[in-house]
Each structure stands twice: as structure tokens, then as C-alpha cells.
């Protein structure tokens, strides 16, 4: 690629304009932005809310506020920080506002809980008798999307970018696995990098390069009222608005001089706006704002919003075509922040923020089916409908056995995963779980896993088979630990970025000289490994998850169960190919469940037979099935970190307490250079183990000496130790064992203390 590559951005909306601005600011000035229509014509409500449960999304919005707040176009503002006011009309909604305030504090956003009277003082049209309180975020506000887009475009043009209207893209040229240009109906544009920023047209652009873009257009209706006497004289045509944006559920309300704009997400239909279709949101708006009773809908519009199955953006490079990127499904509030990270990714080779939840590669192939994308996008965008229960997508071979045991399921990466089992509600261990515990059955499952034996379905964990003469050098380069051990060696390790940040974790099982089984965290890790495959064909990666299955067998009696299933000596730390009863299986030490035991791998066709054999052999020992809630508790008790939850690409292994998985003296590996000289010397923060007075949920702010100091990453009840446990990122000065801190939990400060060690060390593994 050229030192300053030729970039073509498809789409001159606010995201495309923001990306052109960010790229040219970093010196990539050969940027061409194409749009199939005229430039800078679209507009929308322009509502900006910063606080999100996801830290990265909040950072996107914070940057959008800062950037657009400083932008003007011909002396006119692009963003007005009038504030936001989220309303609660029920006790449950009020509790959620307390939690949202916690998120805001964790991520560095100013936010305040307001009484009904204070809410009415902030927005004079609001009836305080109709609300229980509100969350006021002064830095939120309203923007002019078209104005913000044009202002950024003009800055990019001043640095050398060009914008071309009336260019409908009909093809993308490629050669040797790379993009080489973009073809429109009337012209051809050479390119080293192409970025799709087309919104609802993204799937059509994706089809030009054989890329499934999991996005569907869904409806958001927006109406403007007739003039309201109550607003007369409050605003002028320049400022437009002065009161905070109101939010309640899917309803939003903002000012337009002497009128109000009311928005509502429906998720269904794309027909032109009809006032009759707006009756329900209108009635809710009138209930909260009585001044609307004498007003009417003057005009309205149905906007099509690009929506994904999980409501997150799609950012990243085509997995099979170098140089083709997407920045799609980006809400206006996140536009500048997302564009900045994509620009950093392109220019610097990696983003600075953790983009795992927004990565284009996060979906498994089965999750890209159009019907599935639409169903899940509607549920995420407009909320689930009671008459449309969620349909299972992926089930393990043990699913029928789970149903027979009364499993309560949740979904992850399309898989149905048992959280706990109703069959265990009568376990005597439940009497040892406090009545106040919200997951008593899961607690009993965790106790049995510690004291007897349990099986956990580990099938959903993605598994790869990596083979070829270059397999060992490839894995040595891509992972942090020493893998050049004997056949059967099972080695935990990490995947790092060039900057030394933790992208994910792996467990590598050496099956032979040139054959390895690798467990990764998510599809993003699989894509990362594929992206770095050598071009000489010396390494092959095969995704084997769907064709195989895995049971975790753990607890002090797990060895007895294995003894009843196999005559082979399974003593030691190596993986073995053997038979369990009639089932050919790979048996290897269990590394990351928080309790000693084994992983039992076999083909999906033999999964039920494996389950039945283990279940029969375990019956004399009191075996139970344990779900993900019990596994989460065992993990926290053992002090095991979770990549993606506790540790992200923004953290290095040493500050995260994962230095044992890093072998700096094995030679080069990706990220090694960034880590040299770093252990313990430069860390300003630390992933800290806490014991808390109250069981928290995660993402709450942690206070030290009365001031916000960090945030909780994950938490669980340690059922076998009788303590509430959590991990939190804290400055090193307040991460010393015994240090008292406080956690803000639904508006209350609850005590916690920094613990010196895991509540229950995992100890040596059992052997048969």
C-alpha cells in the first residue's frame, strides 16, 4: 500500500464526513467521498445521549459532544448542550435511572438524579405529578446533523479531500485479495482503501464484495407539533432549543423554537408518516406534557434507521478482502467517536478503544441469516413482543437433556446456554444459600461442583483446529505463552494487539507436531487469527465448534467418574485421546472454570451418548448439571479473569494480573515489543479483587476517599465461601489489600474492601 493510500468513502452522511475529517487530519489527504444523491441533504432529530451500559459507546458519544460542540458552519452551531432528562414513572424505571447514573459516573459523564419538582423546573411543560424522578445529564443535547456533516466535510476539503455527488456505486474492483477501486454508473475511482458508510444501503454494498452485512432498516417516526403558546418567547430561530431533551422509554421530546418534536421507535414498517399511526406515542407525550392537549401533529416523517441484531455498530475490515472496511449502523450520537476510532485503526493499525462489541466479525455465520438478523434487530430496536417468544438458534447435542432437567436458558453468540436447572431446586445444598440470594439453585449447583461433581456444557466456546507445517511458528507468533511442548500439552495464553493490549484469551492443546486445537473467546478472535495467516498456505484454520461438543467435568469426585468410564490412566497434565465408555473422546485438564477437572470433547453426533455415559457413571457420586451462573460464581471465587468483561484491548496483561500467561523470553510474538520493560514499572491502574457487602451487578462506580476512582467489571456471589465478590479497575494507590472503598449500587454507597487473594484458590488439578 502507498505511504498515503487512496481512500474512497462510500456515503456522504455524517459518518462518512466525520471519517473524511478524521483521516485528513491524520495526513491521509487522498480521500474521495462518493454519494449517490446530492451532498448534505439528510437531517434528523439530532439527539445526543452520552450514557450507555457499554463504556466504548459512551466514549464515542463523549467525543461527538466535544467535537460537534466546537464546530460551527457559517457562524451557526452544530451542537447545543441543552441537556437530557430521562424520566421514570414507575419504581422499576426509577431504579434503572439510579443504575444509569452509576454507568455515567463510571464512564466520566456528569449526571444527577432529580426529584419530580426539579424535573419540572428543568422543563416547565412537564407535569411533576406524572413522574417519580429523572436523570439529568447536562452535557447531552441536540445537534444539526446536516450542518455537522457539512462542517466536517469542508474541513476535509480544505486538507485535500473531494466530495462527489450523484455517484451510485455498482461495483468494487479487486485484485490479489485487495480492493483496487470503486466503479459507479458514470466513473471509476482508484482506491487502496474503501470504506462503506452508507447506512441502510450497507447490505447492497456488501453484496458487491460478497460480504454479509447484518443490518436491516427499521422505522423511527418523528412528528412536529403545531405552535405551543406555552413556548412562545422561550427560544429564537438561532438557538431553537433551551430545555433538556426528554426521554421516556422509546419516546423522545425536544424543542423546535415554539414547537415540540416527538420521536418514537416502532421497529416495523417503512410507510410514509400517518398521524393516526402516532396515536400511542402522542397520548404518552400528552400525559407527560399537558400543554400538548390543545396542539396537533403539524407534520411528521418516517426515518429508516439501520439496525443490527444487538444494536451495536459494525466496524472493521472485510475478513476476506483486504482494504474493504465498513463503518455502519452508527447512530448520530456516536458518529464522530466511531469515525475517530476507524481512522485510528486505518492510520495507526489499531484503534485505542476496545471495539470488540462493535467489531464486524463478532457474529457467527449462522447469525447472519437475513430472517434471524431482522427478528433480532426488531427485538433489540423496539423491544420484544409477548406474543413472539425468542426462538432458539443454536443448541448443543445436550439440549434435550437440558430440557429434561428444566434448564433456564439465556443466549450467547446464538447458543442456548443453561443458566441453572429446575431439577436442582430440591438439592439439600440450597439450605446453605441465604434466602435473600436471587440465584439459590445456581448457588447449590456451585456447592456441588466444589464438593462432589458437576457437568457443565462448554460446547459454545469456539474451537479451532490449526494444522500445517507452519502451525507451531504461527501460534508462537500470535499467542503469548510457550507452546513448544510435548504432544498433549495444554497451554493457556493470550492474544495481544501490537500495543500490548489483551484482545482475547486462548487455550492451546497440542495434538501432534503440526496439529493443534485452540479454544478462543469469540468469533472476533477467530477472525483475528485468520487475518494473520501466512500467505504461503503453510497453516490452515478449521472452525470445528459445530461438529463437536464439550462437557466440563469438575469437582473432587470427577476422577472417580472418569475411572468408571475409562481403563486408560489419565493421571497428569496432558490431553489424551481415549474412549469414555463407547465414546471416542479427547480428555484434557480443565483450565478456566474455577474448579479442577477435565474437558471431555467428542463429535456432535456422539454428544448425547457422552452425556448419558457421564451421567450414569456420576450417579453414585451425586453428579448434577451446573449452569453458567454457577460457573460464573466458581470463576470469581478462583480469581480467574474474563477477557471481554474484566480485561479488554485497553489493558495489558500485567496490570490485569495475567502476566503468568506471558513468556517474554520465548522470542517474538505479536505485542511483545510493547510489553518489554513494562511489567510492574509503569502500571497506573490494576484489576483489583474486592469483597463487597452487597452483591453488585457490574459496571458500577467505585469510590475511594469519597471520590470516583474506578469501576466494577464483573461480580458474583461466592456461594462456597459465603462472600460477595467483584473485580474492579482501580488506581494502584488504592488497590492495596485491606483498602476500604465504596461502590455506588442503585444510588446507595455500599462498603467493599480490597482483597489480598482469591476467595478460594483453584489449587492443583484432580487426577484420575
Give a structural overview.
Helix 1 packs parallel to helix 5 (145-158). By secondary structure, this protein is of the alpha+beta class. Residues 763-768 have low confidence and may be disordered. The chain folds into 4 domains: 7-49 and 53-62 and 145-214 and 309-362, FAD/NAD(P)-binding domain; 78-141 and 217-307, D-Amino Acid Oxidase, Chain A, domain 2; 402-457 and 548-634, Probable tRNA modification gtpase trme, domain 1 (Gyrase A, domain 2); 463-543, Aminomethyltransferase beta-barrel domains (Alpha-Beta Plaits), CATH 3.30.70. Helices cover 23% and strands 29% of the residues. It is built from 17 helices and 41 strands. A hairpin with a 6-residue loop joins strand 21 and strand 22 (324-328). It is globular, with a radius of gyration of 28 Å. An 8-stranded mixed β-sheet has the order 8-9-7-17-18-19-16-20, with helices on both faces. The longest helix is centred in the first third of the chain and has 17 residues, at 91-107. This is FAD-dependent oxidoreductase. Residues 6-345 form the FAD dependent oxidoreductase domain. InterPro entries: FAD-dep_OxRdtase, FAD/NAD-bd_sf, GcvT/YgfZ/DmdA, GcvT/YgfZ_C, GcvT_C, GCVT_N, TrmE/GcvT-like.
Task: Give the secondary structure arrangement, pairings included.
Layout: E1 7-10, H1 14-25, E2 31-34, E3 47-48, H2 55-70, E4 72-73, E5 76-77, E6 79-80, E7 84-88, H3 91-107, E8 112-114, H4 116-122, E9 133-137, E10 141-143, H5 145-158, E11 162-164, E12 169-175, E13 178-184, E14 188-190, E15 193-196, H6 202-207, E16 216-225, E17 245-248, E18 251-256, E19 259-265, H7 279-288, E20 297-307, E21 314-317, E22 324-328, H8 335-348, H9 370-382, H10 399-404, E23 407-412, E24 415-421, H11 440-451, E25 454-457, E26 463-467, H12 471-478, E27 490-496, E28 502-512, E29 515-519, H13 523-531, E30 540-543, E31 548-554, H14 558-565, E32 576-580, E33 583-589, E34 597-603, H15 607-618, E35 624-625, H16 628-638, H17 672-675, E36 685-692, E37 701-704, E38 707-718, E39 723-731, E40 740-745, E41 748-754
Parallel strand pairs: 1-2, 1-15, 2-11, 7-17, 15-22, 25-35
Antiparallel strand pairs: 3-10, 4-5, 6-10, 7-9, 8-9, 12-13, 13-14, 16-19, 16-20, 17-18, 18-19, 21-22, 23-24, 25-31, 26-29, 26-30, 27-28, 28-29, 31-34, 32-33, 33-34, 36-39, 36-41, 37-38, 37-40, 38-39, 40-41
Helix pairs in contact: 1-5, 1-8, 2-8, 11-16, 14-15
Amino acid at each position: 500500500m502507498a505511504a498515503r493510500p487512496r481512500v474512497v468513502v462510500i456515503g456522504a452522511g455524517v459518518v462518512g464526513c466525520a471519517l473524511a475529517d478524521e483521516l485528513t487530519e491524520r495526513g491521509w489527504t487522498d480521500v474521495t467521498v462518493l454519494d449517490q444523491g446530492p451532498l448534505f441533504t439528510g437531517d434528523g432529530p439530532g439527539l445526543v445521549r452520552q450514557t450507555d451500559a457499554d463504556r466504548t459507546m459512551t466514549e464515542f458519544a463523549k467525543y461527538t459532544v466535544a467535537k460537534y460542540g466546537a464546530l460551527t458552519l457559517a457562524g451557526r452551531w452544530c451542537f447545543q448542550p441543552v441537556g437530557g432528562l430521562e424520566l421514570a414513572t414507575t419504581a422499576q424505571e426509577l431504579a434503572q435511572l439510579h443504575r444509569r447514573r452509576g454507568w455515567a459516573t463510571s464512564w466520566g459523564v456528569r449526571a444527577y438524579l432529580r426529584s419530580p419538582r426539579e424535573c419540572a423546573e428543568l422543563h416547565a411543560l412537564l407535569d411533576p405529578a406524572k413522574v417519580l424522578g429523572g436523570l439529568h445529564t447536562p452535557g447531552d443535547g441536540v445537534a444539526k446533523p446536516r450542518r455537522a456533516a457539512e462542517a466536517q466535510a469542508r474541513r476535509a476539503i480544505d486538507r485535500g479531500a473531494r466530495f462527489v455527488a450523484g455517484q451510485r456505486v455498482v461495483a468494487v474492483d479487486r485484485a490479489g485479495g485487495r480492493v483496487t477501486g470503486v466503479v459507479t454508473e458514470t466513473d471509476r475511482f482508484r482506491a487502496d482503501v474503501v470504506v462503506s458508510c452508507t447506512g441502510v444501503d450497507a447490505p447492497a454494498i456488501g453484496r458487491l464484495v460478497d460480504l454479509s452485512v447484518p443490518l436491516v432498516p427499521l422505522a423511527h417516526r418523528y412528528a412536529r407539533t403545531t405552535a405551543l403558546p406555552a413556548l412562545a418567547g422561550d427560544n429564537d430561530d438561532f438557538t431553537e432549543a433551551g430545555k433538556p431533551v426528554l426521554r421516556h422509554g422509546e419516546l423522545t421530546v425536544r424543542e423546535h423554537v415554539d414547537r415540540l418534536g416527538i420521536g418514537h421507535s416502532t421497529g416495523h414498517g417503512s410507510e410514509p408518516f400517518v398521524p393516526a399511526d402516532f396515536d400511542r406515542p402522542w397520548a404518552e407525550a400528552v400525559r407527560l406534557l399537558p400543554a400538548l392537549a390543545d396542539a396537533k401533529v403539524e407534520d411528521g416523517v418516517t426515518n429508516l434507521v439501520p439496525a443490527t441484531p444487538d444494536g451495536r455498530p459494525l466496524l472493521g475490515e472485510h475478513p476476506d478482502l483486504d482494504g474493504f472496511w465498513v463503518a455502519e449502523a452508527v447512530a448520530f450520537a456516536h458518529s464522530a467517536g466511531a469515525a475517530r476510532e476507524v481512522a485510528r485503526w486505518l492510520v495507526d493499525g489499531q484503534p485505542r478503544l476496545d471495539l470488540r462489541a462493535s467489531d464486524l466479525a463478532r457474529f457467527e455465520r449462522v447469525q447472519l441469516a437475513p430472517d434471524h438478523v431482522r427478528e433480532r434487530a426488531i427485538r433489540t430496536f423496539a423491544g420484544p413482543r409477548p406474543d413472539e417468544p425468542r426462538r432458539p438458534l443454536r443448541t448443543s447435542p445436550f439440549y434435550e437433556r437440558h430440557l429434561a432437567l428444566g434448564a433456564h436458558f439465556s443466549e450467547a453468540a446464538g447458543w442456548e446456554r443453561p443458566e441453572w436447572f429446575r431439577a436442582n431446586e430440591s438439592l439439600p445444598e440450597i439450605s446453605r444459600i441465604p434466602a435473600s440470594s436471587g440465584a439459590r439453585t445456581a448457588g447449590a449447583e456451585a456447592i456441588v461442583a466444589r464438593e462432589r461433581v458437576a457437568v457443565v456444557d462448554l460446547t459454545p466456546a469456539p474451537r479451532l483446529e490449526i494444522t500445517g507445517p507452519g502451525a507451531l511458528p504461527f501460534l508462537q507468533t500470535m499467542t503469548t505463552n510457550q507452546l513448544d511442548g510435548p504432544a498433549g500439552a495444554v497451554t493457556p495464553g493470550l492474544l495481544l494487539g501490537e500495543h500490548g493490549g489483551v484482545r482475547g484469551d486462548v487455550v492451546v492443546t497440542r495434538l501432534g507436531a503440526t496439529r493443534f486445537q485452540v479454544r478462543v473467546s469469540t468469533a472476533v478472535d477467530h477472525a483475528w487469527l485468520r487475518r494473520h495467516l501466512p500467505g504461503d498456505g503453510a497453516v490452515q484454520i478449521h472452525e470445528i465448534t459445530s461438529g463437536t461438543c464439550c462437557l466440563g467435568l469438575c469437582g473432587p469426585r470427577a476422577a472417580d467418574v472418569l475411572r468408571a468410564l475409562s481403563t486408560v490412566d489419565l493421571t497428569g497434565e496432558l490431553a489424551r485421546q481415549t474412549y469414555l465408555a463407547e465414546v471416542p473422546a479427547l480428555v484434557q485438564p480443565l483450565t478456566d472454570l474455577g474448579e479442577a477437572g477435565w474437558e471431555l470433547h467428542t463429535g456432535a453426533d456422539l454428544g448425547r451418548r457422552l452425556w448419558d455415559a457421564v451421567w450414569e457413571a456420576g450417579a453414585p457420586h451425586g453428579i448434577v448439571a451446573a449452569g453458567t451462573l454457577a460457573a460464573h460464581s466458581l470463576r470469581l471465587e478462583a480469581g480467574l479473569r474474563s477477557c471481554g468483561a474484566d480485561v479488554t484491548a485497553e489493558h495489558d496483561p500485567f496490570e490485569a494480573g495475567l502476566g503468568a500467561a506471558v513468556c517474554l523470553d520465548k522470542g517474538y510474538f505479536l505485542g511483545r515489543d510493547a510489553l518489554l520493560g513494562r511489567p510492574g514499572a509503569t502500571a497506573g491502574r490494576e484489576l483489583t479483587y474486592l469483597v463487597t457487602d452487597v452483591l453488585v451487578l457490574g459496571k458500577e462506580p467505585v469510590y475511594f476517599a469519597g471520590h470516583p476512582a474506578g469501576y466494577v467489571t464483573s461480580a458474583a456471589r461466592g456461594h462456597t465461601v459465603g462472600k460477595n465478590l467483584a473485580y474492579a479497575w482501580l488506581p494502584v494507590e488504592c488497590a492495596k489489600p485491606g483498602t476500604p472503598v465504596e461502590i455506588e449500587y442503585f444510588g446507595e454507597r455500599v462498603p467493599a474492601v480490597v482483597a489480598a487473594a482469591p476467595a478460594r484458590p483453584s489449587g492443583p488439578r484432580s487426577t484420575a
